[in-house]
Specification:
The chain has about 500 residues and is of the alpha+beta class. Helices cover about 30% and strands about 15% of the residues. The chain has 11 helices and 14 strands. The strands form 3 sheets. It has a 6-stranded mixed sheet with strand order 8-14-13-11-9-10, covered by helices on one side. Strand 13 and strand 14 form a beta hairpin. Helix 5 crosses helix 11. The radius of gyration is 23 Å and the shape is globular. The two termini are about 35 Å apart. About 45% of the residues are buried.
């Protein structure tokens, strides 16, 4: 991860805050493994941005918000960094830690009917520069024609930090803005002796299967491979959905599966049904007799959520494999609507898979290969060429898609008179060969879904159809008291 030192308080920066003493020579920190690999693979047509969008019911005070955000940056000094100048023969990329921002990261775009749409487009296409501290941009948008309401739209360079780290900084800014306690809520505690339902023998996933290439999502790009955004940047769909029902808990037993398991199953169903509809030769798993399993990458974040949370790229990636067991139920699962009994079996198998992943000891963020590639034996120019060549060679074995489930926001994000969030969306970069990421957040009992795609994979119309397919797939995972009772409809809107 990028940051390991605890946060420290310090005076607010310039750009509207109190003046600060001249900073000494910036401290230097070598790029950690994840940062370096991301830096090697940067391209202009697929910006490595993370988009974080927070909707507040009231209006914020511009001066107070700018001051609070600058003070929050000072409390988390490892976000105040820029890439040091580098030449190809250098052994390392290095972050320079700065005492104050090089540029003001807070901007108030002119209001207008398309101000939010333009800000979203910038978030998907324009990275904050790495050579200016901090590598994050906060745009504050006031929707026109409404007396109240504010959208805080943060764009961060994923080479430097990830979404949960930026959310931690925003929680600190909320606390400094409102004076309210924005400490993270404690993690839920299971009842003593609670245990999960054991999978049936016929539902248990098989052991480790032979190496095979994961399924690819059937491409449906616009002519020329572009969307209304052009080839630069990503397309995105934001939708609000209800949380699907789960079985009631029996005394002393946890639920047989989690909402995260339901989201994994909904993602599998979305991919399998999309491929069945748009590329019949592949079906849900592959062509001919070769099973191409759907593999979903899932970020896991083990960092604490308090003020001491390390800032940077702190998540590790795990793979949830689907394959032979799902092939057996391919027909019922890809029906319209999916067969409830087949979905129930898939939910139980998925719960067993995720329990096994959670119980396994955490590994390296990018495995042994990543550690070897980033060892400072060769120059960064040579290591970069090797990393890009390996990424190209490994593209056929890249997972089908990525599902990042943030879950419940751990912080109140209380902005005082401006209120607490009514909606929060994240979106992760959608670079090829995956070309699609699914990000979910739970706010006020609703799921905020962000689909983000590469224009080389999908155009905007195809992305909207894929979003509708996810919506119906998630509804198919909802528990019902009897097989004859249909799942509740998923009601949501595109933003």
């Amino acid at each position: 991860m990028t940051a390991l030192e605890p946060a420290a308080d310090s005076p607010a920066a310039s750009f509207g805050g109190p003046p600060r003493a001249p900073a000494p020579t910036p401290a230097r920190v070598p790029f950690p493994l994840v940062d370096e690999v991301s830096r090697h693979c940067l391209t202009d047509d697929e910006p490595e941005t993370v988009h974080l969008e927070v909707h507040l019911p009231g209006r914020v005070d511009p001066v107070r918000l700018r001051t609070a955000f600058h003070r929050a940056l000072a409390r988390h000094p490892r976000i105040l960094m820029r890439q040091a100048p580098v030449r190809w023969w250098h052994r390392r990329y290095t972050w320079q830690l700065t005492a104050a921002p090089d540029v003001d990261p807070v901007d108030f775009p002119p209001p207008g009917p398309d101000a939010l749409a333009r800000a979203r487009q910038r978030a998907l296409a324009d990275c904050p520069p790495l050579d200016a501290s901090p590598p994050v941009r906060l745009e504050v948008i006031a929707p026109p024609g409404a007396a109240d309401g504010t959208v805080l739209l943060l764009t961060l360079h994923h080479t430097a930090l990830d979404g949960p780290a930026c959310l931690r900084v925003l929680a600190t800014a909320a606390e400094l803005y409102s004076g309210a306690d924005n400490s993270p809520a404690p993690s839920p505690v299971r009842a003593p002796g609670a245990r999960t339902e054991q999978p049936r023998l016929d539902d248990a996933p098989a052991g480790r299967r032979r190496l095979s290439r994961p399924a690819r999502i059937a491409a449906h790009p616009a002519p020329g491979g572009s969307s209304r955004h052009g080839r630069h940047g990503n397309g995105m769909l934001l939708v609000e959905l209800p949380v699907p029902d789960r079985p009631p808990r029996a005394p002393g037993r946890a639920a047989p599966y989690t909402v995260n398991d339901q989201l994994l199953v909904a993602t599998w169903l979305m991919v399998a049904r999309w491929n069945r509809q748009h590329d019949p030769r592949h079906g849900p798993h592959g062509a001919g007799d070769t099973a191409a399993p759907v593999v979903i990458t899932m970020p896991v974040d083990d960092r604490p959520r308090g003020i001491e949370m390390p800032i940077g790229n702190g998540t590790r990636l795990v793979s949830v494999d689907f394959g032979p067991e799902e092939r057996r139920d391919a027909g019922p699962l890809t029906a319209d609507p999916p067969d409830p009994d087949a979905v129930a079996r898939l939910l139980r198998r998925t719960a067993a898979r995720t329990r096994a992943l959670k119980s396994a000891p955490p590994g390296r963020q990018l495995g042994l290969a990543g550690a070897v590639l980033t060892a400072p034996v060769l120059s960064v120019g040579v290591r970069g060429a090797l990393t890009r060549a390996l990424r190209t060679a490994a593209a056929p074995w890249t997972s089908t898609t990525l599902l990042s489930n943030i879950g419940r926001i751990p912080y109140p994000l209380d902005f005082g008179d401006a209120g607490r969030p009514t909606a929060v969306w994240f979106s992760a970069p959608a670079r090829m060969p995956r070309g699609l990421t699914v990000t979910t957040v739970s706010v006020a009992g609703r799921i905020q879904l962000a689909l983000r795609w590469s224009p080389a994979l999908l155009d905007d119309r195809a992305g909207a159809r894929l979003g509708a397919l996810f919506q119906s797939s998630l509804a198919a995972t909802a528990w019902t008291s009897s097989p004859d009772t249909p799942p509740p409809p998923a009601v949501g809107g595109t933003r």
